[in-house]
Design goal:
Two copies of one chain form a homodimer. With about 350 residues, the first copy, chain A, is an alpha/beta fold. The radius of gyration of chain A is 20 Å and the shape is globular. The two termini of chain A are about 25 Å apart. At the A-B interface, helix 4, strand 6, strand 7, helix 6 and helix 7 of A face helix 4, strand 6, strand 7, helix 6 and helix 7 of B. Strand 7 of chain A pairs antiparallel with strand 7 of chain B. The complex binds 3-isopropylmalic acid (2 copies). One 3-isopropylmalic acid (IPM) sits at the interface of chains B and A.
């Protein structure tokens, strides 16, 4: 049996370039890992008119994990690939833990004055299968003055409890053991109450984890004024989308932002991808930074139980980034080579 | 007839202290303005068990504007006063334009490295009467494993169009004439499409205003990485709640953040208040900064058509803040006195 069967969806633009490096690094650290390439994204859509044929999704399902680059191109109407591929995988593969670590790494600079590497180190656990992302909305009287449009946020005790428990377990394993719930309980009283009550109930199982609650607007402000206060954060799908981008911004942008859309039970494959997009403007030049893609590969290794390999990869990325000459340009493949060589 | 009939809801904690200064400044710049005090907030609620009796709301309705300090106290369950007073006024008085300017003032420091005063100067026009704030949600099987909770975002062409048109008109009056629509059209396809189509339709009436669209997650990132790019922003109720707190954070926190919940037709009174809360921890000491409250008074004057007075007040606040010795402590009433004296 192979040590890991990984589906590679390199995608569009710089996605293909950075994913090649992530794969190279996995090959270096986990000999025997098997890779199957899937050509999905804008090119595939423009050629076939399909986003994710059922037969391909069935094949993806037979892998241990999906290594994804980036999808999207100006030639495709906005939303089509996001919903038809990224969000579809999150829902169909029950990837309810959307994992987004944010760290201020040595060699990177925060836009916040006076912050030193190491001072920001948080993980946001964003719910991935419920909330406003379920697509439960409607339109009446479209294109008339009487038009109304609705969007419904659906939240279940089942769905909230499992992601909250996952976040507590992660907080428990970290040094600071602190977990912040982010919601908007003073306005979204129904969903907010479900989240707050579930959070309190699960907290009783984790007496060593200290807890805190913040409204999403206050949390967004703290992400800027005091990001050091966060350790693990758990929040709903939409709030998580927003605050993880603020977290990425204060840790120097999306250059180092990795993410995993995780099905913790491994009943379905989980997807690992950099937070950045396909960046058509710099695609094909070999100058995209593969750090976030390689860190996503580290999350993949961690998820598949290769803890030592995961740690070594993230340390090698950190060392490579720390060794860069500030302001110097980089070559995508050279970064991958250096990280792979260090392993 | 009086030049302006202003209802004063000073509220709790530092609310009373900073509102006294805002009132002092209005008195200095607009002789003849009349003030009626209303004792609402935590103290009133704890004494009477009511948040906003109908008779008082009827009285408030007969004023030209409401000058509000801050409400909230740990003795009151979270959400009660927010929903029963602040949000109730926004809905009952049809305050559909929630106006939040953010400026990096001379004398204040952005947490962002390298930003100079004047470099951030934006106004967020947040919709105030629709979206997820309408309270349309439900719970089934509460406190059982089968619990579900919903929140519904309601959006009308009528409601979106009027706030979008207001934002275009504001952008038109500014130097840069740039308007950014912030939404999440790739996920909230129904409401997002209504907002995007309405925005495009109204844009045709304002050919001099340049426009741009950003997803809320990208906008949140740009608020940190490049806040200079924003001039006027229009967005829905919840997104506006979040991005205005980021805007406040990058302009040095909520010390200078003023807001108005505006009914532009003046059919109902509009409410003007600092974004900060009642800060029970420093209440009663006379050390709260009244700048945001006085700037809110400036927005009030502007709304009532006293443009020259509004400008003079905001210039006087700017001068007072710029004259402060960095790090020195301040006295609430002395700041008010200095601003009033300068007028
Ligand atoms: C592309 C988009 C649908 C997606 C989201 O909203 O989740 C993205 O912003 C993300 O954070 O992964
Ligand atoms: C207090 C709360 C209900 C309110 C809101 O969410 O609108 C506040 O955060 C604001 O921004 O005025």
């Amino acid at each position: 049996m192979s040590v890991a069967r990984i589906a590679v969806v390199a995608g569009d633009g710089i996605g293909t370039e950075v994913t090649a490096q992530a794969r190279k690094v996995i090959e270096a650290v986990l000999p025997g890992a098997e890779f199957d390439d899937y050509d999905l994204g804008a090119r595939f859509y423009n050629r076939t008119g399909e986003v994710l044929p059922q037969a391909i999704e069935d094949e993806l399902a037979r892998h241990d994990a999906i290594l994804l680059g980036a999808i999207g191109d100006p030639s495709v109407p906005p939303g089509v690939l996001e919903r038809g591929l990224l969000l579809k995988l999150r829902f169909d593969f029950d990837q309810y833990v959307n994992l987004r670590p944010s760290k201020l790494w040595p060699g990177t600079t925060s836009p916040l004055a006076g912050l030193k590497p190491g001072e920001i180190d948080m993980v946001v656990v964003r719910e991935g299968t419920e909330g406003l992302y379920v697509g439960a909305g409607g339109v009446l009287h479209k294109d008339t003055p009487a038009e109304i449009a609705t969007e419904e946020s659906l939240n279940t005790r089942y769905g909230v409890e499992r992601v909250v428990r996952d976040a507590f377990a992660r907080a428990q394993r970290r040094e600071r053991r602190h977990l912040t719930l982010v919601h908007k309980t003073n306005v979204l009283t129904k969903a907010g109450s479900l989240w707050a009550r579930t959070f309190a109930a699960v907290a009783a199982e984790f007496p060593e984890v200290t807890t805190e609650y913040q409204h999403v607007d206050a949390a967004s402000m703290f992400m800027v004024s005091n990001p050091q206060r966060f350790d693990v954060v758990v929040t709903d799908n939409l709030f998580g989308d927003i605050i993880t981008d603020i977290a990425a911004a204060v840790t120097g942008g999306i250059g180092m932002a990795a993410s995993g859309s995780v099905n913790p039970e491994r009943k379905y494959p989980s997807t690992f991808e950099p937070v950045h997009g396909s960046a058509p403007d710099i695609a094909g030049q070999g100058i995209a930074d593969p750090a976030a893609a390689i860190l996503s590969a580290s999350l993949l290794l961690e998820h598949l139980g290769h803890h030592d390999e995961a740690r070594r990869v993230s340390e090698a990325v950190a060392a490579e980034v720390a060794s860069r000459t500030p302001g110097a340009s980089l070559r995508t493949d050279e970064v991958g080579d250096r990280v792979a060589a260090a392993l």
